[in-house]
What does this fold into?
Amino acid sequence: LQPLSDDHHAALVLARHTRLAAKRERSALTRAWEDARLRFASELEPHFRVEEERLFPQLESAGERALVEGARTDHASLRELIRAEADPAVATMEFMCEDFRFNVAHK
It folds into this structure.
């Protein structure tokens, strides 16, 4: 589970980087958003697949269906957001809201 935990930390760092870029000029935000989209494909999507294929079935077997359903919904929301051709400012705000929602739900 440690590699999955490390991935979660990396995702939080990415969200923080994007959030900080939102406070700077538009070009910084655009670059940060493009970086987030690239890193999502190379880092977060593989992480999601590992969770969905290996971890979630075990959690469901242990009776944690609600937890798994919530995580699947989070994954779907982030995939949709990252793949959308949204304005970087709007997408960043949505990404930050997803990040906040994840952190609150998993404390």
Observations:
- DSSP finds four helices and no strands in the chain.
- Helices lie at 2-21, 26-61, 65-83, 88-105.
